[in-house]
Design a protein that fits this description.
Blueprint lengths: L2 H8 L3 H6 L22 E3 L25 H6 L3 H17 L4 E3 L22 H16 L4 E7 L12 E3 L2 H8 L1 H10 L3 E4 L3 E2 L2 E2 L4 H11 L5 E4 L7 H7 L9 H13 L4 H22 L8 H15 L1 E5 L11 E4 L24 H7 L4 E4 L11 H13 L2 E7 L18 H13 L3 E6 L14 E4 L7 H9 L32 E3 L8 H6 L17 E8 L3 E3 L3 E10 L5 E10 L11 E10 L4 E9 L5 E3 L4 E3 L3 E8 L7 E8 L14 H6 L4 H15 L6 H9 L5 H5 L1 H18 L8
Parallel strand pairs: 1-2, 2-3, 3-5, 4-6, 4-15, 5-8, 10-11, 10-12, 12-13, 13-14, 17-25
Antiparallel strand pairs: 6-7, 9-14, 16-18, 18-21, 19-20, 19-24, 22-23, 24-25
Helix pairs in contact: 1-11, 4-5, 4-12, 5-7, 12-16, 13-16, 14-15, 19-22
The structure holds beta-D-glucopyranose.
C-alpha cells in the first residue's frame, strides 16, 4: 500500500471505507469529494465498448466499433493483431471517459455448448494466455485499465450464479488458470474480475485459495479484485478472501462490512486492505485521466476491424472452389449475406458504428452476384417457395455461396446451447444445393462449433466465426482472393456432440458440474482417444502452401533451469502471398501415466510472398514440459525423452524432434513398507537396492506361471511388505535391512540440502 493511500485511509471512517468496497451505481465506483477521490468508470468489453449514454434510457450504449469477438480474434492466432485491437479499444474507451474496460474474457471452452464461448478464446490455455497478454498490453498502453475475467472455472451459463465447478487441483492449474496466470504475471491487468460460480463449493467471490493465495501470493497480483456483477453472496467473507470491489452498488453489503468491523468479527486491517486497493485504482485512473484523451476515429477503427476479421477467418475446406473469379456468376444464398451475424448477445453486445454485409461489399465491387434469401437469418423457418428459388438460383449459377450460421437466439450470455446443430432449414438447403451445384461454398457465422453433416458434399467451407462489424467486407475479400485466409481453429470441431469431452457431465445437475474429464479438454481429449474429428485444433487452410525444413534444436538435452532454442525454416511453396501459423507442441515422455499426448507450447504467424522463406525460432524452458504435480504443489517434469512437434495443425505435424530432459528434482518418494517396487525401481537412488533384493527373492514374489510382462506388471505394484507375506522367514528377516538401505539412499526431507 502506498503512503498516499495509507494517508487517505487514515482520514476515513469505517463506514466510508466500507462504502468504497462497492460501486456507486452500475458503472462507477464511489467518489469521496472531501478527499478529492473521483469515481472510476468501467464499461464492457471485451470486443467493443459498451459505454452507456446517460442521455438515453438503457440499454442504449454509445456507438462503438464492434471488433471480432473472442472466438474470431483467437482464430487469428496472432498476438500482434490482438494487441492492435486492444490499442484501438483502449483509444475508444479513453475518448469516452472510460477508465477500465471489462475484458479480456479468457475462460476455457470446456464444452462447445457454453452460451458464452463466442466471447472466449480457446480450449487451449496457452493460446488463451498469449492472447490475453496481448489484449491487456494493447488496452493498457492507452492508459485504460482492463479486467481479466471470469476468475475462474466459469465454463457454462446454466445456473452460473450458484453452480459449483468441481475439479481437482491439477486440472485447475493446468487448464483453467494458466491464461490468468500468464496475463497477471506478464501484462499486469489493473483488475481481475472474479466469476459468478462456486469452485469446489466456495463462491469465487469468497475463494481465498484463488483470490489471495494463488493470485497474489503466487502470481504477485497488485491490482484490485472486482466481483462480476452480482456475484457476491457473503460480502464479509469476500473481504476476508481478497475481494476488494463489489459491483454494482450494494449499500446493504457495505453496511454488513462496517457492522462486522464494529463487532470485531472482521479486522479493520482487512477492510483497509480492500478499500486501499480501490483507492489505488482510483488514483491510477485519475493519473491517466490527466492526459487529454485523443478523439477516437471510429471510421479508421472500422477499417481496422474489417482487416482483422479477414485475418481471423478459417478456411476449413477447399476443393479448389475458392477463390471465386470476378467473371463467375455467383448465387448468394442465406439471410446472413445481407445481415451478417457478427457478435453475440449479453453484456458484450455493442451498438455498432457501421455494419458491412458481404452482399453490399460484392455489389460495391461490381461482382456478378444474385441474392436469394433462402432462409431467414434470425430463426429456423423453411418457406417452400423461397427454398426452391434458392435451389434454382444455385443450380443455374457458376457457384453458390450459402451464408449459414446460428441465429442470435441460439447463443448468448445467460444460457447454453443444448445441441450443436444449425437450424434444420439451413442444413436441408445446404444439402439440397450441394446436390445440384458442385461449386458450393458454405460461409459460417457462429460463435462456436456446429455439426456440419454436409461437410463432405460441399466444395468449400469458410468460417467467419463472429467477426465483428467489418465481417461482410472481410468475407468478400476472402471469397474473391483479395485476402488470404489465415485463421486457424482455436478449438476442435467435433463430428458430433456425443464425442465431446464432458458430454455426460455438462452442464451438471444444477448444483454441481463435475469436471470428470480432468485435463483432457479439447484436443487433449480427442488425441488421447485417437478420435476422428470434423476439423482439428489449429486447422486452417490457405490459398497458398507452406513447407517446413531444417528443423533443429540448439541442444539435444534440456536441463532444468536451462533453455533450448527450436528453429524451423518455413517456405511459401505456393503461388500466392499468405500467412502460415507455425505451431509447436510438446509430447512425452513416452508411457508417462495420465498425460495428454501433446500440448501447444508456442506458435508464430508469419507472412510470406510466394517462394519466400523465413526462419522461426522458439525458446523453450522446463515449464513447457511440465505438468502440475499436486503432491509437490508445483510444476514438474520427469527426466526422460520428450518430442518437440512442429506442425500446420495439431493433426498435421510434419516435424518431430527428440529432446532429452534432465530434471534436478525428483518426485517425493516415501520409504516405508508400502512403497512399491515399481516406484523404487524408477528412482536411480533406490533401484540398486531393489534389484539386489529381487535377485534374492524375485522368484517368490512373482507368479511362477505368469509371463515376463505380467510378472513385471505385478512386481511394479507390489509393496515391500510382500516380502513378509510371500518371501518366507528369510524375506521377513531381510525387510528391515532393505528399508534401512533404502533410507540410506534417500535421506528424509529434513536432511536434504
Ligand atoms: C458479465 C460480465 C460483465 C458484467 C457487466 C456480467 O453479467 O458476466 O462479463 O462484464 O456483467 O456488464
Amino acid at each position: 500500500m502506498s503512503s498516499t493511500v495509507a494517508e487517505l485511509l487514515a482520514q476515513m471512517t469505517v463506514e466510508e471505507k466500507a462504502a468504497l468496497c462497492s460501486g456507486a451505481d452500475f458503472w462507477n465506483t464511489k467518489a469521496i469529494g472531501r478527499l478529492d477521490i473521483r469515481p472510476v468508470r468501467v464499461s464492457d468489453g471485451p470486443h467493443g465498448l459498451r459505454a452507456e449514454d446517460p442521455s438515453v434510457p438503457p440499454p442504449q450504449s454509445l456507438p462503438a466499433v464492434c471488433f471480432p469477438a473472442g472466438c474470431a480474434a483467437a482464430a487469428g492466432f496472432d498476438t500482434d493483431l490482438v494487441e492492435q485491437m486492444g490499442r484501438a479499444l483502449g483509444g475508444e474507451a479513453r475518448s469516452a471517459g472510460v477508465d477500465v474496460l471489462l475484458g479480456p474474457a479468457v475462460n476455457i471452452k470446456r464444452s462447445p455448448l457454453c452460451g458464452r464461448n463466442f466471447e472466449y478464446y480457446s480450449e487451449d490455455p496457452y493460446l488463451a494466455g498469449e492472447l490475453a497478454v496481448a489484449y491487456i498490453r494493447g488496452v493498457q498502453s492507452r492508459g485504460v485499465g482492463t479486467s481479466i475475467k471470469h476468475f475462474a472455472a466459469n465454463n457454462q451459463e446454466y445456473r452460473r450464479l450458484t453452480c459449483s465447478s468441481e475439479l481437482d487441483e491439477r486440472t485447475l492449474r493446468e487448464i483453467y488458470l494458466p491464461a490468468f496466470e500468464a496475463a497477471v504475471r506478464r501484462a499486469k491487468p489493473w483488475t481481475v474480475m472474479c466469476s459468478y460460480n462456486r469452485i469446489n463449493g466456495t463462491h469465487a467471490s469468497e475463494n481465498k485459495h484463488l483470490l489471495t493465495d494463488i493470485l497474489r501470493g503466487e502470481w504477485g497480483f497488485e491490482g484490485a479484485v472486482v466481483s462480476d456483477w452480482g456475484a457476491v453472496s457473503d460480502r464479509v467473507a469476500g473481504v476476508r478472501a481478497g475481494l476488494d470491489l463489489e459491483m454494482p452498488a450494494c449499500p446493504a453489503h457495505d453496511r454488513q462490512i462496517a457492522d462486522a468491523v464494529r463487532a470485531g468479527t472482521l479486522p479493520e486491517s482487512e477492510l483497509d486492505r480492500a478499500a486501499g486497493r480501490v483507492l489505488e485504482l482510483a488514483l491510477r485512473a485519475a493519473e491517466h485521466r490527466a492526459d487529454p484523451p485523443a478523439e477516437a476515429d471510429l471510421d479508421a477503427d472500422h477499417d481496422a476491424a474489417a482487416a482483422m476479421a479477414a485475418q481471423c477467418a478459417v478456411l476449413l475446406k477447399n476443393r479448389g472452389v475458392l477463390p471465386l473469379g470476378q467473371d463467375q456468376r455467383v448465387a448468394y444464398i442465406g439471410g446472413f449475406a445481407a445481415a451478417p451475424r457478427y457478435q453475440g448477445g449479453g453484456s458484450s453486445h455493442v451498438n455498432p458504428w457501421r455494419v458491412d454485409s458481404a452482399l453490399d461489399a460484392a455489389r460495391r465491387r461490381g461482382r456478378s452476384v444474385d441474392y436469394v434469401e433462402g432462409f431467414p437469418a434470425d430463426r429456423d423457418q423453411r418457406e417452400e417457395a423461397e427454398f426452391l428459388r434458392a435451389v434454382e438460383a444455385a443450380e443455374s449459377a457458376d457457384a453458390a455461396v450459402i451464408f449459414a450460421g446460428l441465429p442470435d437466439s441460439f447463443e448468448s450470455e445467460g444460457y447454453d446451447r443444448r445441441h450443436l446443430r444449425l437450424p434444420e432449414a439451413q442444413n436441408n438447403l445446404i444439402a439440397r444445393i450441394a446436390a445440384v451445384q458442385k461449386n458450393t461454398v458454405v460461409v459460417l457465422h457462429t460463435g462456436s462449433p456446429v455439426e456440419c453433416p454436409w461437410a463432405d458434399d460441399v466444395g468449400a467451407v469458410l468460417c467467419m466465426y463472429l467477426g465483428g462489424e467489418g465481417v461482410g467486407r472481410a468475407t468478400d475479400a476472402l471469397l474473391y482472393g483479395e485476402a488470404d485466409p489465415s485463421g486457424r481453429l482455436p478449438e476442435t470441431w467435433p463430428l458430433r456432440l456425443e464425442d465431446t469431452p464432458c458430454y455426460q457431465d455438462f452442464p451438471g445437475n444444477g448444483r454441481t458440474a463435475h469436471y470428470r474429464e480432468g485435463v483432457y479438454v479439447g484436443y487433449r481429449w480427442y488425441d488421447a482417444r485417437r478420435m476422428p474429428v470434423r476439423w482439428p485444433f489449429g486447422h486452417g487452410l490457405s490459398y497458398t502452401g507452406f513447407v517446413y525444413r531444417d528443423a533443429a534444436l540448439s541442444a539435444p538435452v534440456l536441463k532444468e533451469g536451462g533453455q533450448v532454442e527450436v528453429s524451423v525454416t518455413v517456405r511459401n511453396s505456393g503461388a500466392r502471398f499468405g500467412h502460415e501459423v507455425v505451431q509447436l507442441y510438446v509430447a512425452g515422455p513416452e508411457n508417462a501415466p495420465d498425460r495428454p499426448p501433446q500440448a501447444l507450447r508456442r506458435f508464430a504467424k508469419v507472412a510470406l510472398q510466394p517462394g519466400a522463406q523465413t526462419t522461426v525460432r522458439f525458446v523453450l524452458t522446463a515449464r513447457d514440459l511440465c505438468v502440475f504435480d499436486p503432491e509437490m504443489g508445483d510444476w514438474y517434469a520427469d527426466s526422460g525423452e520428450y518430442t518437440i512437434r512442429i506442425g500446420h495443425s495439431s493433426r498435421n505435424v510434419p516435424v518431430a524432434l527428440p529432446l532429452r530432459y534432465e530434471s534436478l528434482r525428483r518426485r517425493p518418494l516415501t520409504i516405508d513398507e508400502n512403497a512399491t517396487l515399481g516406484d523404487l525401481l524408477r528412482d536411480e537412488r533406490t533401484a540398486p537396492v531393489i534389484r539386489a533384493m529381487l535377485a534374492r527373492f524375485g522368484q517368490r514374489l512373482g507368479d511362477p506361471g505368469a509371463g515376463p510382462e505380467a510378472t513385471l506388471q505385478a512386481l511394479d505394484g507390489t509393496p515391500l511388505r510382500a516380502m513378509v507375506s510371500f518371501g518366507g522367514p528369510e524375506g521377513a528377516a531381510a525387510l528391515p535391512g532393505v528399508l534401512a538401505a533404502l533410507r540410506g539412499a534417500v535421506p528424509p526431507p529434513a536432511e536434504r540440502g
